[in-house]
Design the sequence.
RNA sequence: GCCUGGGUAGCUCAACUGGCAGAGCAACCCCCUUGUAAGGGGUAGGUUGUGGGUUCAAAUCCCACCCUAGGCUCCA
């Protein structure tokens, strides 16, 4: 049923894409060379080349949409026709993209179908389509972008228009509203509004400056993660931000990853580079001693700050940056421990993500593409073994909706990635658990087994939150900036109504401090309304209001973010209530 | 890196085809002393991203670079 619906929607949207192209060709005859355009999950897009210096911008949308509506009014039927290759080549004589398609269809020995709408528009298309353009009433053009022909960097860049289409007005409006909602939650916008972080052009793109509130949030997350890992048998380590190139040559990063590393610099005749990964350091710590089979597994964890030279066009707020801190760990273990370690790591992942309020996950197994072995390091046997172990662990944990990404593995081994759904249904890849047999071999990691023989251990990389920057970005959007009390940088706003209550406010603040709460006193000479509004805009979870009445009765007025309900209670009762909510990491 | 927009006060944004750079919020000062989402008045704040060019005159036009948005490619 669901599938049927999705199929119908895709047909509607693909038809709408024809409608768009027809309108474009009517508006700018001879200047638009259409390339291709499918339906997507949210709508459709159309790729085309522009000629004669024509540039399409969102300013043109009203004009294009009006033209599309005209064609809708015309109720032109979609007419299918099967034609010969010769006819097709002739029909699209001046369109190199369609020629390329035709060649391919001919090669595959498939029939060539075209769809007409009216006398003026025909497109090479497999179909199917709606009956006529009159069905395509509820559409909207959304954005303009550049896109490479056939998705290859080597090809020409075309212009792409994204749009969407729904069977009813209501659904279209709901979709547009949800888009707006997503924009309101944009972590870049909230980062500014809530004073969490900033990016300064002079410091450099993709480098985050954490303001006090953002830094507090980061500390809370970091502390929680580290405490949890320590409880689960990890050991804390710290390693430097730079290392000699020699290290990266030994690890293989220099060969496989150099393009994404910041260029090396020299000091005393030695070349150094910023670290793009923490692994080699952890390996060095392991290798510092002769290890016994009894020592394993060893689990090293670190809040490791790494620097990667991401191309300028891919940077995005907190979610794609050039300097970030991973909640990294490397588990070094024997083969007989491998499966259990992977399983435990999976369990820990689920625990962490649930604690942070994510309810839905999807797991992706990324394996090597056997057809593209050059992209990966190591031999077939190791890869097969590693992939087998990951599969088994997933099965044992009964992880749902497993999806395989062939070719998605790291260059040194296969991995399990966890994708979460946020509060408004968007997907984010967060946790990763990766198996590595490259580094143990390259660094000649060893342990002595019960027979006194040297053995090579296995290594698991895992980052459960991924990068703190990215994780916080996602968390901001997930909660729309309204963090649960345990995460909120400021948990309580104390609002004395008049000057007379300021001394009391300070006394109460002292008690909150003792109780380990994070608070602010909002005592400017502004009206209470004004200060309440500020506290709500700052999304502070708990509000304490103090007036003459409360002072006299030795009580406080307690309100929660987003609610007008309030309670008058003693300070100790308030503390008991909120401390419990915070300890239990409850949502507000 | 590529395509198309954009960069104006701390923030959000104005300024018609080149002609004195402006508003709201925030900041600061004063008044109001506040009872549940913006009380009132005033002050200050700018080499219009950077560098070059065209022009009597440039935020506006041209060139280069930097940053940024939406995408594409990429994300070990």
Sequence:
């Amino acid at each position: 049923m669901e599938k049927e619906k999705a199929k119908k929607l895709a047909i509607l949207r693909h038809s709408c894409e024809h409608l768009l192209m027809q309108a474009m060709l009517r508006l700018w005859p001879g200047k638009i060379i259409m390339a291709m355009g499918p339906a997507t999950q949210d709508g459709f897009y159309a790729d085309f080349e522009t000629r004669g210096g024509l540039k399409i911008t969102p300013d043109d949308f009203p004009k294009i949409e009006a033209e599309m509506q005209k064609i809708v009014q015309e109720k032109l039927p979609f007419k299918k026709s099967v034609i010969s290759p010769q006819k097709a080549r002739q029909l699209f004589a001046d369109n190199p993209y369609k020629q390329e398609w035709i060649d391919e269809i001919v090669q595959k020995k498939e029939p060539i179908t075209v769809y007409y709408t009216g006398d003026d528009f025909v497109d090479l298309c497999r179909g199917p389509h709606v009956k006529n353009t009159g069905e395509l009433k509820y559409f909207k053009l959304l954005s303009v972008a550049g896109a490479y022909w056939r998705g290859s960097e080597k090809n020409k860049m075309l212009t792409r228009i994204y749009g969407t289409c729904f069977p009813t007005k209501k659904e279209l409006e709901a979709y547009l509203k949800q888009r707006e909602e997503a924009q309101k939650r944009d972590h870049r916008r909230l980062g500014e509004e809530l004073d969490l972080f900033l990016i300064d052009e002079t410091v450099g793109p993709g480098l985050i400056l954490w303001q006090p509130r953002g830094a507090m949030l980061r500390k809370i997350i970091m502390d929680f993660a580290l405490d949890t890992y320590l409880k689960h048998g990890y050991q804390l380590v710290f390693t430097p931000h730079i290392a000699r190139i020699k290290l990266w040559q030994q690890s293989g990063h220099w060969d496989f990853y150099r393009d994404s590393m910041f260029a090396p610099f020299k000091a005393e005749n030695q070349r150094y580079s910023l670290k793009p990964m923490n692994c080699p350091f952890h390996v060095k710590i392991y290798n510092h001693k002769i290890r016994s089979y009894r020592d394993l597994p060893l689990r090293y964890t670190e809040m490791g700050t790494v620097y990667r030279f991401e191309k300028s066009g891919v940077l995005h707020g907190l979610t794609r940056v050039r300097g970030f801190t991973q909640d990294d760990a490397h588990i070094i273990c024997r083969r007989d421990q491998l499966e259990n370690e992977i399983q435990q790591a999976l369990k820990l992942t689920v625990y962490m993500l649930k604690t942070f309020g994510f309810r839905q996950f999807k797991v992706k197994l990324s394996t090597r593409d056997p057809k593209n072995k050059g992209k990966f390091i190591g031999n077939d046997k190791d890869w097969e073994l590693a992939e087998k172990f990951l599969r088994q662990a997933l099965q044992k944990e009964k992880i749902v909706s497993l999806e395989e990404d062939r070719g998605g593995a790291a260059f040194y081994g296969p991995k399990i990635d966890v994708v979460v759904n946020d509060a408004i249904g968007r997907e984010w890849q967060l946790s990763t658990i990766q198996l590595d047999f490259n580094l143990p071999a390259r660094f000649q990691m060893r342990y002595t087994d019960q027979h006194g023989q040297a053995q090579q251990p296995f290594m698991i990389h895992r980052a459960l939150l991924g990068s703190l920057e990215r994780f916080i970005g996602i968390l901001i959007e997930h909660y729309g900036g309204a963090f649960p009390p345990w995460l909120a940088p400021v948990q309580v706003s104390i609002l004395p109504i008049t000057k007379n209550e300021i001394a009391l406010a300070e006394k109460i603040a002292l008690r909150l401090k003792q109780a380990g709460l994070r608070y602010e006193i909002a005592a400017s000479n502004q009206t209470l309304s004004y200060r309440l509004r500020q506290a709500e805009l700052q999304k502070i979870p708990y509000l304490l209001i103090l007036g003459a009445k409360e002072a006299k009765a030795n009580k406080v007025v307690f309100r929660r973010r987003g609610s007008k309900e309030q309670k008058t209670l003693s300070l100790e009762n308030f503390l008991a209530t909120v401390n419990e909510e915070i300890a239990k990491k409850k949502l507000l």
The CA atoms of residues 48 and 338 of chain A lie 51 Å apart. Residues 190-236+276-479 of chain A form a domain with the BirA Bifunctional Protein; domain 2 fold (CATH 3.30.930.10). The mean pLDDT of chain A is 91. Chain A has three domains: 2-184, 190-236+276-479, 492-583.
